[in-house]
Amino acid sequence: MSSSDGIDLPQKVLFSPDQLSLKWAEVHRIGAGLQNMGNTCFLNSALQCLSYTPPLANYMLTREHSKTCTLFHQQWCYAVLPGGALSLLTFLLRPIRCLTFLSFADSDNQPACIPTHFASMDKARTTSFIHQVFGGYLRSRALISVSVKCLNCKAVSDTFDPFLDITLEIKTSPNVSKALKQFVKPEQLDGENMPNHDECLFTIHRSANVLTLSLKRFDVKYLEHLDLRPFMSQSHGEPQLYRLYAVLVHSGLSCHAGHYFCYIKASNLQWFQMNDSSVSVSDIRTVLNQQAYVLFYIK
């Protein structure tokens, strides 16, 4: 059975999206910084960005998850191990399955590249709490010629794939909007048995509540607000508006090494810079002039 947008319905829903609150349930004081335990600045920054994701923070503060979480009850094991804190953080982040947050966990000097695809997820897993917060669906539409005599006679084949973040190729794109336009640009299909003019089109079919954009270059312009509607399968309709709430920043002379820190928007709507153990007040003008590596937007 399929939903109204063509995506197969799961047989089981692990977490209802109706339980999500995308706004802070209450105002909290700013949290502490995180000590760099030896090349852990990327992990620190990723964890801070997650900590100031409103629906994730709201849920964790209810402690509902702690009652049944095996990781929560096993965490004491890591306290007595060498490097236990780092091992615990990596272990806790692993279920998110977001490779963006794990690919730099070992060193600040890792190459600045991340995988562009997630491991396949079955339908039930795409209804988990994490996917309800960060997840959406991409549509891959293949247009295949059905006759060598009629290049306009096309067969349409749609494939839907879940995502937790979107990695943007930005070699020739000066800003995020143009990078997204490039992301949904039709591509010609190659192959010995494929006639000319066959093509594949990627679009964002079901938008995420929290949109995570991974950039492969650090000098890209981005805005505080983003409308995702032009890049969706249904490109006409009500705007899909997002606002920036966290930026993971790269600092260094090359993309192959450097330091990572982040800016987050706290529950009191004040921006802060979180640089390992250092926490300082910031503002949106400063935030929008950074060498961003990962952008976090929320509906």
UniProtKB/TrEMBL annotation:
InterPro entries in the cross-refs: Papain-like_cys_pep_sf, Peptidase_C19, Peptidase_C19_UCH, USP, USP_CS
GO terms assigned for molecular function: cysteine-type deubiquitinase activity
Transmembrane segments: none
GO BP of this protein: protein deubiquitination; regulation of apoptotic process
Record domain USP: where: 32-299
Signal peptide interval: none
Single GO cellular component term: cytosol
Source organism superkingdom: Eukaryota
Name recorded for this polypeptide: USP domain-containing protein
